[in-house]
Design goal:
Layout (H helix, E strand, L loop, with lengths): L4 H4 L5 H20 L5 H13 L9 E8 L2 E8 L5
Antiparallel strand pairs: 1-2
């Protein structure tokens, strides 16, 4: 099922839907294997600093490392609550 099928109203079997979901999960897990060992600890420390100023939950912070040749970029996305 493609992204546009959701809008077209096409129905797919539960087996194909389950297969697509599993592929997404596997791709996500593979992406996390390449992350540095310190990344989960760094995410918790960043979360602790942000919590000093704003009340947020764990799922409101996403930390990712993108590799571009010899350069690594740390991407931090924080969803802040509205006041």
């Amino acid at each position: 099922m493609s992204f546009l099928d959701y809008f077209r109203g096409k129905k797919s079997s539960s087996a194909s839907t389950a297969k697509e979901r599993l592929q997404i999960i596997v791709a996500h897990e593979r992406g996390q294997r390449d992350q540095p060992d310190y990344l989960p600890q760094m995410q918790q420390e960043i979360l602790a600093v942000i919590r000093k100023y704003v009340q947020i939950s764990d799922d409101m912070v996403q930390v990712e490392v993108d590799r571009n040749g010899s350069c690594s970029v740390l991407e931090l996305n924080v969803t802040l609550p509205e006041r």
